Amino acid sequence: MKHYFLKRVGLAVILSTFFSCGKDFLDVPPSTVVVRQQYISDMKTASEFLNGIISNLTQLYSTSNGVYADLAADNVRPLETETDKELLTKYKWAMIVDGASSSQVNLNSLWLYGYAVASNSSFLLEVIGKFEKEDMEMAKQIKGSALFLRAFAHFQMVNIFAQPYFFSGDAMHMGIPYITTSDWQSPVTRQTVADVYEKMVADLRIAIPLLKDGTQSVNELTITRNAAKGLLARIYLYKRDFANAKILAKEVSRDVPIMTSYNYPADLFTQNDKESLFRLPPEQKSFLALYPGYYFRLLSQLFATSDIAILLNERPNDVRKSWVAHFGSNWTVTKFPTAATGAPIPELDYYLPIIRSSEMYLTAAESYAQLGQEDSARLFLDAIRQRADSTALDCLAIGKALLDTIYKERRKELCFEDFRLFDLLRLGKGVDRIDALPGSSHLPYPSNKAIAPIPLLDIQTSGLQQNPGY
């Protein structure tokens, strides 16, 4: 096992260097292309390279990147005395334009690693055909995985650096560049959000039949068919294609049902978690990232807001109330387990959820409700509600009240998992904080400050248009 992860560390370093010396974040210099071409010499090294790309993916959730959607919304807040710029600028919607990849006042690092994943996934797609005769099934799995990773990286970035799909009604507003080549000389432009979504859907539609069935292995960074379906269901939900979101979410929930109340929530994010469709290994095995537990428990710099804590505690028999705990006058986030594998730092020792079947149940519930099939919506909703609270009665809500109940349940179940801001924006809602630091109680919808600025280097060297308001 040690040898396996050392390989991943070495690859992660190689992949990181691809983006450390280019003229901007979107470029891969020629010398780097040579390194990649020399490294991948057969199916085995192609598989190792894929694991290296997934290691880069952990950086999308490192430090404040992994808590951004909760921090910039209403689930998490820093202490009033906090002086950490990395937290405060995102919490106060005060990010500024900067050229440094390690800047603390914006999300440049997420852009950097997002395009690292996209470019290297594209490179793997370009070369894998050379080795497919060695093992056709493995070649399919690698290709499907690379397509999944490319779509996922762009999905994260389009949510952070562009306004939501229906911001302009037809999604023709500025999105992000969608990278489908490893050619560092190819020009890049900001495509429309509609174009970005179309390309993500296309990548995943190709990926799904190539990928393996089953669930993600504990000891492998395997991307499964259900993971790709789950991501595609999420994308359809965000673009309000409820018919397709419903179909996929229903398929996934049938194949990977939620855990029962017997092992929920204790087994979530541990080796025994049976409902994760895609997750990242514990922080200390990735060797690259500092997951949210870094802020929630190790440093105690971020706390749950009182309103999410009250929501989790509104029913005395809801087991999710254990996800927050009193810490003086604050609420500590205790959702993620500690010491899941026996690694040296317990607070960082858990599997980071990216897609899980609970989300699919809630996606199915919302999609059914939006399509007017309310009996089916309540069926999926109650599966989540009654697993968490065995005394909860069947939901009888209809119309808007049913949707509001689904949204509330989604906020509870997925809290602290990097969804909240994106959910508010896709629903056309602003941020209204009950528990807020002074001067940070409201962000209207729409707002220029709801999205991050494009890194300065790509404005200057690639000619990308900056987001309004920066």
Task: Provide structural commentary.
By secondary structure, the chain is mostly helical. The protein has helices at 2-17, 30-39, 43-57, 68-71, 85-91, 108-127, 136-161, 193-207, 225-238, 242-255, 283-286, 293-298, 306-312, 357-370, 374-388, 399-413, 420-426, 456-461; strands spanning 76-78, 276-280, 302-304, 324-327, 330-333, 352-356, 431-432, 442-443. It folds into two domains: 1-68 and 87-211 and 427-457, Alpha Horseshoe (Serine Threonine Protein Phosphatase 5, Tetratricopeptide repeat), CATH 1.25.40.390; 265-416, Alpha Horseshoe (Serine Threonine Protein Phosphatase 5, Tetratricopeptide repeat). The chain is built from 18 helices and eight strands. It is globular and about 60 Å long. Residues 24-237 form the SusD-like N-terminal domain. It comes from Chitinophaga agrisoli. This is RagB/SusD family nutrient uptake outer membrane protein.
In what order do the strands lie side by side in the largest sheet?
Answer: 1-3
Kindly state the mean pLDDT as a whole number?
A: 90
Radius of gyration: 21 Å
Strand content: 5-15%
CATH fold assignment of the largest domain:
Serine Threonine Protein Phosphatase 5, Tetratricopeptide repeat
**Would you state the CATH class of the largest domain?**
Mainly Alpha
